[in-house]
Amino acid sequence: MKHHAKGGSRSKIIWVWYRQELLLLLREPVAVFFSLAFPLIIYIFIGIPYAEQIIPDTKVKFIDMMFPTLVGTVAANLLLMGLPIYLAELRSRQVDKRYRALPLSGTNFGIAVISAMLTLTIAASSLIVGIVGFQHGLRPEVTSPLFVLLNIGLVVFLCGVGFFLGTLPLGARTINALTAAVFFILFFGSGAAAPIDTLPAIIKKILEWNPLKIWFDALVAVYTDSPFPAGGTWKIALTLIFAAFLAAIGLTSWRKTE
């Protein structure tokens, strides 16, 4: 009974601070705007003009190739940039330490922050799904268990990396610049914004190990009912192991400040 009460108390604490963090995030118009603006700009200027065109040698529309990467970009934007920047700002203002004095353990606080960020991610992704679905329609593969599982896996990977970046012992401005660099290198190197087929062979070889490209290629393949990328399964497994390793390092750093 005592254990049950303790579990219930912890759940209540996390719920209270989750709502608090979510309200704080929603009061940050810049975060809300950029989480939606970037994928919408890509959709408007690249997706709409070529949406109904058929990809050569396939029966797949351009928008169907683009849709999984649009949703993935929303998650990457918020979890690779938004999450670490938010964590860094909390630490720079020592807000996390003040919260823990209530008391609120670092683990509970971290769960609340990440859950709030995930809520914003789901809301932003749902808007993109709604817009594309209304304008062009969605393929039946959107409800495929494998497609859903891959999207969840991508979010898990991004959370691990984003949490690690946010707990680095660096100033908020440095983390801001670092996360922007990480996001844009991974994003443009994934081929989501522009084809990378014309790049030199050595660069393309390196980009085959771009984690975002690995996930995007798998998502596009499943959504368009195309052949799964060669080696995609074990590459995805490696990215998850890597993210778990980074998350463990981040959690160690996070607990050192408790």
In short:
The chain is an all-alpha fold. It is 78% helix and 0% strand. Helix 3 (62-92) packs antiparallel against helix 9 (211-223), helix 6 (145-166) runs antiparallel to helix 9 (211-223) and helix 9 crosses helix 10.
Please tell me about this protein's structure.
- By secondary structure, the chain is mainly alpha-helical.
- It has one domain (11-257).
- Helices cover 78% and strands 0% of the residues.
- The protein is built from ten helices and no strands.
- The chain has helices at residues 2-26, 29-50, 62-92, 95-100, 106-136, 145-166, 172-189, 201-207, 211-223, 232-256.
- Helix 6 (145-166) runs parallel beside helix 10.
- The longest helix is centred in the first third of the chain and has 31 residues, at 62-92.
- It starts with a helix and ends with a helix.
The shape is: globular
- Following the backbone from N to C, one meets helices and strands in this order, namely HHHHHHHHHH
Count of spatially separate domains? 1
Query: Helix proportion of residues, in percent?
Result: over 70%
Biggest sheet record: none
User: What Rg do the Cα atoms give?
Assistant: 19 Å
Tell me the number of strands: 0
Rounded mean pLDDT score? 84
Question: Which regions have little confidence, pLDDT < 50, spanning 5+ residues?
Answer: 1-5
Strand content: under 5%
The secondary-structure class comes to: mainly alpha
Number of helices: 10
* C-alpha termini separation: 28 Å
GO molecular function, one term: ABC-type transporter activity
Domain ABC-2 type transporter transmembrane: 14-222
Subcellular location: Membrane
Transmembrane segments: 21-46, 66-88, 109-134, 146-165, 177-196, 236-254
